[in-house]
Amino acid sequence: MAVSDEEAVRQRLRAVPDEPGVYLFRDAKAQVIYVGKALRLRDRLRQYFTPGYAQTARVEEMVKRIFDFEFVQCANEVEALVLECNLIKNYRPRFNIRLKDDKNYLYLKLPVNEVYPRVLYSRRVQNDGALYFGPYTSAKQGKVCLDFHIKRCPGPCEKRISPEDYKARIQEVALFMEGRSDVLVRQLHDRMDDSAGRLDFENAARYRDQLQSIERIADRQKVLVHGRDDQDLIAYSRKGGDVFVEVAYVRQGKMVGHDGHPLDGAADVSEAELLRGFLLQYYTSATHVPRTVIVPGAV
Fold first, then answer.
1. Cis amide prior to 262 (ω within 30 degrees)
2. Alpha carbon of 180 to those of 78, 177, 250, 289: distances in Å?
3. Taking Cα atoms as reference points, which of 244, 247, 217, 246 lies closest to residue 230?
4. pLDDT, tens only, 228-237
5. Across the chain, what does the average pLDDT equal?
6. Is there a smaller number of Cβ atoms within 10 Å at the N or the C end of the chain?
7. DSSP label at 179?
8. Are 296 and 278 in contact (CB under 8 A)?
9. In what order do the strands lie in the sheet with 292-294?
10. What is the predicted pLDDT for the residue at 150?
11. How far is CA 34 from each of CA 25, 85, 285, rounded to the nearest angstrom?
12. Which helix (H) or strand (E) segment is 233 a member of?
């Protein structure tokens, strides 16, 4: 059914429920060119087929290419949001906002359910009980055996450390990766003092060196906000037809990292649509969603 047939369009629209759901537009080759969601499907679809509705060149071009449409009714807006996100990932429609760098980043994986959890690299986040940190853009692996001999590794592969002691170290890694270095510093101070009190100066020196390394890193992290909540700060810029979104990660009040994402299909969209499109794609695959996400405008 070509949407240029106005009577056919009106008949199709009468059959659309006035309920939450997701709609798909297809071109003459049956390719999905846009996926959207609506609280009231019928009203939303009618807008596209109302003369003069297109407010931007992008929407005008999309409407010209619509050959057919379909919809999926959902129980509520949340269900529609999840379905919309999955369909966008599946079809990657031309007229939806898309992350240009939608690639498999590296994640640090801690399989804490193992007796001797290993620190691994992974390109997929799975629901397997492990802790994941990231994403990261690169990784550099060392030589395990050499690390053991120069005392940079406790040798779990040869059971040179008890499972209990090793799990304690894995918990320390998790604290550090979560940006909770202040908790880790307190623990290491206590262990250093305890070792020194027992005249175990070798371990006391090891804890001292760990403290110095952590404190050097912490000193480079500027305190941005007061309070303990994790936050993501989001900003974007436009230049010509290019759109770039930057995400800064604040953990425990300190800036711990940032990442940039160029966008496709966002050159002439509104600020609200740009931000919504980015947030929808970015946080559905994020390993950690903070309590607070600060954006530069309404979504």
1. no
2. 32, 7, 11, 16
3. 247
4. 678 889 999 9
5. 79
6. N
7. T
8. no
9. 98-99, 254-264, 242-251, 231-239, 292-294
10. 42
11. 5, 12, 21
12. strand 231-239
**What residues contact 246, with CB distance under 8 A and at least 6 apart?**
234, 235, 236, 237, 258, 259, 260, 261
For residue 75, the Cα-to-chain-centroid distance in whole angstroms is 26
Q: How many CB atoms lie within 10 A of CB 147?
A: 13
158-205 pLDDT per residue, tens: 667 777 777 777 777 777 766 667 777 888 888 899 888 888 888 888
Question: Is 51 a residue whose pLDDT tops 80?
Answer: yes
Architecture of the domain defined by 6-96: 3-Layer(aba) Sandwich (3.40)
C-alpha span between 80 and 88 (Å, rounded): 12
Q: How far is residue 240's CA from residue 246's CA, in Å, rounded to a whole number?
A: 17
Burial class (CB in 10 A: 0-12, 13-18, 19+), 88: buried
Q: Tokens 């262990």: give the residue.
A: 191
Out of 134-138, 218-222, 255-259, the most confident range is 255-259
Q: Domain map of the chain by residue range?
A: 6-96, 106-219, 231-294
Tokens of 87: 């369909």
Q: Read off the tokens for 224.
A: 């941005």
User: Under CATH, what is the fold of the domain 231-294?
Assistant: Ubiquitin-like (UB roll) (3.10.20)
